[in-house]
Amino acid sequence: MADDLLLVGRVARAHGNRGQVIVNPDTDFADERFKPGNTLLVGPADRAERRAIREVRFHQGRPIVLFEGVETMNDAEALAGTELWMTADAAGPLPDGTYYRHDLVGCDVIDASGATVGTVSGVEGTLDRSYLVVKADAGDVMIPMVAEFCVNVDLAARRITVQLPDGLLDVYR
């Protein structure tokens, strides 16, 4: 089941005395993921429990969430540090030109001539400022995830074609 889960946040700490928690979101779509009525899996991926969101409000970009079954400050404090997951099928489609990070990890990266640059080992940054972390012979290479550099993303073939400025890879050598 863990392969089908997307990490959407982590509980930072309890908030107030009614069982609310402050969440550090790990998603570019916090407004969509943290809505009353949505169900998240709370806990380690291999043994997370389903909990519906009863209430949510945002403060300084972070959701303050009240989950079903979390009624007291002690209940909320017990969740500190807990991971929050959702199933991949519940996440829904993304806007054109955007990709789930887990779909990009493991893709081969080639340049426009077909030469291998490396393999995506991670994706860092926010939706509007993401970059690929590519494991290459020269070490980890950071490639901005912008149309000018990433000219073709073929998830079915697990391949990303890049057109990089002259000298970018030399910086990492």
Description of the molecule:
With 173 residues, this protein is mainly beta. It has 4 helices and 12 strands. The strands form 2 sheets. The protein has a 6-stranded antiparallel β-barrel. Strands 10-9-8-7-12-11 form a 6-stranded mixed β-sheet.
Features of the shown structure:
173 residues; mainly beta; Elongation Factor Tu (Ef-tu), domain 3; SH3 type barrels; 2 domains; 6-stranded antiparallel barrel; 12 strands
Low-confidence stretches: none
Radius of gyration in whole Å, from Cα? 19 Å
Shape call? elongated
User: Could you state the CATH homologous superfamily of the largest domain?
Assistant: RimM
Order of helices and strands: EEHEEEHEHHEEEEEE
Could you provide a short overview of the structure?
This protein is mainly beta and 173 residues long. It has four helices and twelve strands.
